[in-house]
Write the structure tokens for this entry.
Amino acid sequence: MTVDLVFLLDVDNSRLDGDRIVRDLHDRIASAFGVAGAQRYWTIFDAMRKVQGYVDYLGALQRDRLVIEAASAEVRRLRTISSFLIDYPFADRLYPRALEAIAPLRRFGTTVLLTDGDVVLQPRKPQRSGLWDAVDGRVLIYIHKEKMLGAVQHHYPARQDGIVDDRPRVLAAMKAISGARLSTIFPRQGHYAHDAAALAAQPPAGYTVAHIGELAERDFSPLLVQRPFHPANATLETP
């Protein structure tokens, strides 16, 4: 069923303080493995990210395990890091009013979490933080979400979309594909949102908020323009 408006809500550094989570992981790995071991892990992590195009903390742990398989003590410490990630208290890293700001958006349209990452840890973030329930399980996770607009619009067809994301590059890429159909909403949170070079390289978003809780006070009724819906035009990528 086609609705008037769908809000596509990012997770990391938009709803969750992803930078804080990464700092916690850095501290835990350094404590477990020391400087040399931590450097080994992050070298593996960066190499995998360049090849795969997304972050995979658990995958890097598995690759690190292959390197140190003979060192039983270090392998045991690896397991503590994997447990640390899987059981991480993501609810404690929600930005203020991150959950409360979802319900008011329903006055204007359907809310959907749209994020990118691996297939194990990335779903844990909305599940353990309460975000999953806040959108009634409407969660989409891709490797590069900006390349999957067709799939998104196939699952949640709408006359208009609003995308909330802290990365100017992602907002600009999705706007370039969807044009007037998509409105971009930029929360100034996280390191991407304060990268002067990244900001200068992209066009400004349609809406900018200082923090995610501010969405609760914004009037998004101008997004509810009645545009003709045509499924052939909506599906920009193959689902």
Q: What stands out?
A: The longest strand covers residues 3-9. The radius of gyration is 19 Å.
